[in-house]
């Protein structure tokens, strides 16, 4: 499968930030033509390792050996020169520049007199897209590209470097299964051309589908490397968390209660159209579909963040004022957004303040916040949700992704909502905390809350939801009960191959 | 099949149109204002009047070229008015002491004064990472203070300036004022540079997404530093030309100029938050503001209205940008929606 010579060897690399040892003993070996998964929980040191290879961080100790020669990757430019391309989790595009210029920024093809050869740049962009089998205009601006398309541009960028080592830091986190399948094919092409691909993902099923070898890290240390044939899912999980997780998805059994949310004919021009569904207390309803199908936008429309052009939302028998998150909140709806960092939390603010943020009106007297009230509120919910933290006064950004998500949940639960809308509840959360979040959701519905969950992870949709609504390009295309739902059925509805709405 | 996510969108042509619309819009506005003023006052179309319309904003245009580069990198240079004043005085003072100084040395001296100021701005903003707004606001006052110390009541008067230099500010070649030719050359050169060379494209990358620029290997600090150097140098050159134009320099020369320049740049379609806009657009912006100014004078409207009109236009420009951005976003959404639905 691969030649004897490793193209990249990372040996006992370490990196500290002040007192925090982000990486203690990082080791990994890449061979040409392989897809290699780097696995570990959040905080295992994967991202630090990637940033070292990208030339963003210097190493404190250890060696990086490229094609048998020890090297120092001192800058992103040096990484590029060494043939290492990194595709980050968050697309890093220039919205104001053309797609072609995004791909060739800093190394635009030149003609005589060091002038940029625009025609050549566009031609090369087209040829890269052709190689990838995608159809994106080379001359349009990057602003307004879908997440999936942005990722494709990122991948095209890496490919156009002619990099022999391509590192993808959770490239599939924002992609849906169809787009991931597309990516797999691209990776196959790259492998056949002799590139080595390192792939970081929290979706283990993808790792099995795509990678030949895995390297597992835990708490900044190398744990093991093995071929994919030699290792089982349980072994991987065990190596990552250092303990057995009996069931990744917990199921709940709760009584279906009263109708709480009734959405009728909800429409927003150009985004979604004629959406009808209901949520009862004591059930988890999942909104499934491809990224960009309009799931998040429907949720935002219900909660009143985005204006809607038509339709009625009835909450607990009363018509909900549209376009007013405040009205939605006081009626008893909580909204946990997809993007914790930007929308769910104030990253620089203390943990207790973040928890108290949505309840602040109940904690004030004469417009002033009662002393200690934020902390006592936070104490109650932090212990209930088992948030792991140092001090309440620490900024939220010091927490891991999973614990940040718990803080967002605590913020809304402190308001004792009767409906919780939660967008991608476990995106970017390590597998241990993931199951805690799922258990929590299940406990909430047994206590009579209704949950509307948006998720791109099929096992999560199938494992957690009581009912599954599928949205395809702005329309509700199918509804399944937990019993009848299968991955294949949902995917068909999500890709618009079948309409099964009653 | 379900790969609609990779569908080609027609939006690039839309964006292109919106962009062209912007520069065309300014040109149309200039023509419109000119026409209206002509109805009110037929002498507005006289050769002298048109020459004045062209040469009047020349110094602002020159400064706007530099300011455009700085704003594209998501920074701002508020010190240019003071730089202009200092440079004008220094060059004037050189003439006082060296009557026979060649013109090119005078222009070079002004440019160097500006370069020095730009150097300080650039070092502090790019390398010490202090926000440009604060740094250049501080420099605005510091340079003005230095200027006042130097002037110390000794104004430069026209009699100290050789005629050959003053001619630079009032003569024409083939009917086009020399000042206009200089500003026009700067606009053309920088328009070409900004479209054609890698380091210039870096400016756009930095303003569009600084973090991504770092990851793409763009030398952000060096580019931001360069932008301030150019802005300073052009403001310095502008100071020398100001001297040629007015021949009188006190300690308040060019004060408040920076705001005229920023207004021209923004009206000309350069996004105040960086990443987009052109030197040509900024020049048109300056031309438009000056034409309105002159039109109001020619129509005998009280000069108090000038600033109100300039301010209103600034708000209209910003509102227009926002409107186009929202429209574009919606168009992209609907585009995608309907194209996928059509299948």
Strand numbers in spatial order across the main sheet of chain B:
1-2
The CATH topology of chain B is: ABC transporter involved in vitamin B12 uptake, BtuC
Structural class of chain B: mainly alpha
Count of separate structural domains of chain B: 1
Strand order of the largest sheet of chain A: 6-9-10-3-11-12
**What is the third-level CATH name, the topology of the largest domain in chain A?**
Rossmann fold
Most extensive interface: pair and counts? A-B, 51 and 44 residues
| Helicity of chain A, as a percent range | 25-40%
CATH class of the largest domain in chain A, named Alpha Beta
The value of Rg of chain A in angstroms is 24 Å
How many beta strands in the DSSP annotation of chain B? 2
Largest sheet of chain A: 6 strands, mixed
Helix and strand composition category of chain A: alpha/beta
- Specify the number of helices of chain B: 14
- Measured distance between first and last alpha carbons of chain B: 9 Å
Mean of all residue-level pLDDT scores of chain A: 84
What are the defining features of this structure?
heterodimer; A: 502 residues; alpha/beta; Rossmann fold; 3 domains; six-stranded mixed beta sheet; 17 helices; 33% helix; B: 343 residues; mainly alpha; ABC transporter involved in vitamin B12 uptake, BtuC; two-stranded antiparallel ribbon; 1% strand; disordered N terminus; disordered C terminus
Write a brief structural summary:
The complex is a heterodimer of chains A (502) and B (343). Chain A is α/β, with parallel strands linked by helices and 502 residues long.
Question: How would the blueprint of this fold be written?
Answer:
The complex is a heterodimer of chains A (502) and B (343).
Chain A: E1 8-17, E2 20-30, E3 35-39, H1 46-53, E4 61-66, E5 69-71, H2 76-81, E6 84-87, H3 99-104, E7 110-111, E8 115-116, H4 118-132, H5 147-160, E9 165-169, H6 177-192, E10 196-200, H7 204-210, E11 213-218, E12 221-227, H8 233-241, E13 259-268, E14 272-280, E15 284-289, H9 295-303, E16 310-315, E17 318-319, H10 325-331, E18 333-336, H11 340-344, H12 351-356, E19 364-365, E20 368-369, H13 373-385, H14 401-413, E21 419-423, H15 431-446, E22 450-454, H16 458-464, E23 467-472, E24 475-481, H17 487-494
Helix pairs in contact in A: 13-14
Chain B: H1 11-40, H2 47-55, H3 58-72, H4 80-97, H5 103-127, H6 132-151, H7 163-170, E1 172-173, E2 176-177, H8 178-196, H9 198-208, H10 210-215, H11 220-246, H12 257-267, H13 279-298, H14 304-341
Antiparallel strand pairs in B: 1-2
Helix pairs in contact in B: 1-13, 1-14, 3-8, 3-9, 3-11, 3-12, 3-13, 4-5, 4-6, 4-11, 5-6, 5-11, 7-11, 9-11, 12-13, 12-14, 13-14
């Amino acid at each position: 499968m691969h030649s004897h010579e490793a193209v990249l060897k990372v040996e006992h690399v370490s990196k500290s930030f002040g007192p925090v040892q982000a990486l203690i003993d990082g080791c990994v070996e890449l061979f040409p033509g392989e897809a290699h998964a780097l696995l570990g929980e959040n905080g295992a040191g994967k991202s630090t390792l990637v940033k070292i290879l990208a030339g963003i961080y210097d190493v404190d100790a250890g060696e990086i050996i490229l094609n048998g020669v020890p090297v120092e990757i001192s800058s992103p430019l040096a990484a590029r020169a060494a043939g290492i391309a990194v595709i980050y989790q968050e697309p890093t595009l220039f919205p104001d520049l053309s797609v072609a210029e995004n791909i060739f920024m800093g190394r635009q093809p030149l003609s005589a007199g060091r002038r940029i050869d625009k025609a050549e740049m566009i031609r090369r962009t087209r040829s890269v897209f052709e190689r990838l089998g995608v159809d994106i205009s080379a001359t349009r601006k990057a602003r307004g590209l879908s997440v999936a398309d942005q990722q494709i541009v990122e991948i095209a960028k890496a490919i156009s470097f002619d990099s022999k080592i391509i590192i993808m830091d959770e490239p599939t986190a924002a992609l849906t299964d169809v787009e991931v399948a597309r990516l797999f094919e691209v990776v196959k092409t790259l492998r056949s051309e002799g590139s080595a691909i390192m792939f970081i993902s929290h979706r283990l099923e993808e790792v099995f589908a795509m990678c030949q070898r895995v390297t597992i890290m835990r708490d900044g240390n190398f744990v093991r490397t093995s071929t994919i044939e030699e290792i089982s899912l349980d072994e991987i999980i065990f190596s990552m968390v250092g303990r057995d997780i009996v069931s990744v998805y917990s199921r709940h059994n709760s009584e279906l209660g009263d109708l709480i949310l009734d959405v009728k004919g909800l429409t927003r021009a150009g985004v979604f159209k004629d959406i009808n569904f209901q949520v009862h207390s004591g059930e988890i309803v999942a909104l499934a579909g491809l990224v960009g199908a309009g799931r998040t936008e429907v949720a935002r429309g219900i909660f009143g963040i985005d204006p809607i052009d038509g339709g009625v939302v009835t909450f607990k028998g009363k018509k909900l004022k549209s376009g007013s998150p405040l009205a939605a909140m006081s009626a008893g709806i909580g909204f946990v957004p997809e993007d914790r960092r930007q929308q769910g939390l104030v990253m620089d603010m203390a943990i207790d303040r973040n928890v108290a943020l949505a309840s602040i009106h109940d904690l004030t007297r004469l417009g002033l916040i009662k002393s200690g009230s934020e902390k006592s509120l936070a104490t109650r919910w932090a212990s209930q949700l088992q948030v792991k933290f140092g001090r309440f006064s620490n900024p939220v950004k010091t927490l891991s992704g999973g614990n940040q998500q718990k803080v967002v949940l605590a913020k809304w639960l402190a308001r004792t909502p009767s409906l919780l809308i939660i967008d991608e509840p476990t995106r970017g959360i390590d597998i241990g905390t993931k199951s805690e979040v799922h258990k929590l959701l299940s406990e909430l519905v047994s206590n009579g809350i209704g949950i509307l969950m948006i998720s791109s992870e099929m096992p999560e949709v199938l494992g957690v939801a009581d009912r599954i609504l599928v949205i395809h390009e702005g329309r509700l295309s199918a509804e399944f009960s937990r019993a009848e739902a299968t991955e294949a059925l949902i995917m068909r509805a999500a890709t618009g191959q079948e309409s099964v709405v009653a | 099949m379900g790969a609609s996510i990779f569908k080609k969108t027609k939006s690039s042509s839309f964006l292109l149109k919106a962009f062209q619309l912007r520069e065309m819009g300014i040109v149309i506005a200039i023509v419109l204002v000119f026409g209206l003023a002509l109805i009110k006052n037929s002498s507005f179309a006289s050769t002298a009047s048109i020459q004045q319309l062209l040469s009047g904003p020349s110094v602002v245009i020159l400064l706007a070229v530099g300011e455009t580069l700085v704003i594209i990198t998501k920074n701002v240079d508020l010190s240019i008015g003071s730089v202009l004043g200092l440079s004008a005085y220094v060059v004037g003072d050189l003439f006082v002491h060296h009557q026979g100084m060649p013109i090119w040395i005078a222009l070079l001296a002004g440019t160097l004064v500006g370069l020095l100021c730009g150097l300080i701005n650039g070092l502090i903003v790019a390398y010490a990472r202090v926000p440009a707004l604060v740094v250049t606001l501080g420099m605005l006052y510091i340079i003005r203070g230095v200027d006042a110390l130097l002037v110390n009541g000794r104004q430069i008067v026209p009699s100290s300036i050789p005629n050959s230099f003053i001619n630079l500010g009032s003569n024409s070649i083939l009917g086009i004022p020399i000042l206009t030719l200089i500003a026009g050359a700067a606009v053309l050169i920088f328009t070409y540079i900004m479209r054609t060379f890698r380091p210039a494209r870096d400016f756009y990358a930095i303003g569009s997404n600084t973090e991504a620029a770092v990851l793409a290997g763009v030398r952000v600090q060096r580019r931001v530093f360069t932008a301030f150097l150019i802005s300073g140098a052009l403001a310095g050159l502008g100071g020398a030309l100001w001297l040629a134009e007015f021949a009188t320099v006190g300690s308040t020369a060019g004060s408040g100029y920076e705001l005229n320049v920023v207004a021209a740049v923004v009206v000309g379609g350069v996004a105040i938050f960086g990443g987009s806009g052109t030197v040509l657009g900024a020049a048109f912006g300056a031309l438009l503001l000056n034409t309105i100014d002159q039109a109001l004078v020619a129509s005998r409207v009280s000069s108090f209205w000038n600033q109100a009109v300039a301010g209103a236009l600034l708000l209209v420009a910003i509102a227009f940008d926002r409107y186009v951005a929202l429209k574009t976003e919606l168009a992209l959404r609907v585009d995608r929606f309907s194209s996928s639905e059509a299948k």
